[in-house]
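Per your request, structure below.
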């Protein structure tokens, strides 16, 4: 993977903390999770994964249902507005960083773990490649094989081989 001046986990922490109303007060895990989630959505939108916002709406609605007070801890309850702010933040602070985030979340130790893909090569369909890698990363190998067969007209054995290569690359073989 390409060397970057800063760890993506630090950048996501910085972005998500910009949504916290009072950084001097302890933030609930739900509010911190939602802010980190919004930062991930904004980042991926900036690198060409513009379906992320609608695709994940049900996730933050579930979190909100568990703790409706979480909005009191964030700068706003305007989800689209907060994500738009984070998009602008990413464009202003990290315009040339085109890494794509596969997973991003907090660890039990209180740190942030980010799994990412390098920027897509020129001519590569960003959404397609990220979906394929996401399927492999989450263990949906049968679905990844079917996805390759349907979208790239690969034989089952070609698709199986490609999925195995991606699994090794991601360290989930």
């Amino acid at each position: 993977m390409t060397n970057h001046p800063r760890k993506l986990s630090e950048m996501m922490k910085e972005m998500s903390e910009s949504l916290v109303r009072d950084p001097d007060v302890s933030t609930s895990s739900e509010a911190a999770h939602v802010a980190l989630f919004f930062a991930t959505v904004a980042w991926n939108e900036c690198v060409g994964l513009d379906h992320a916002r609608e695709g994940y709406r049900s996730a933050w609605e579930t979190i909100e249902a568990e703790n409706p007070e979480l909005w009191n801890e964030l700068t706003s309850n305007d989800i689209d507005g907060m994500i738009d702010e984070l998009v602008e933040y990413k464009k202003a602070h990290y315009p040339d960083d085109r890494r794509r985030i596969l997973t991003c979340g907090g660890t039990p130790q209180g740190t942030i773990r980010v799994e990412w893909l390098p920027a897509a090569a020129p001519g590569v369909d960003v959404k397609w490649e990220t979906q394929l890698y996401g399927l492999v990363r989450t263990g949906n190998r049968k679905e990844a094989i079917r996805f390759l067969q349907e979208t790239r007209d690969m034989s089952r054995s070609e698709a199986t081989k490609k999925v195995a290569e991606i699994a090794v690359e991601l360290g989930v073989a």
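The chain is about 55% helix and 10% strand.

Regards,
D.
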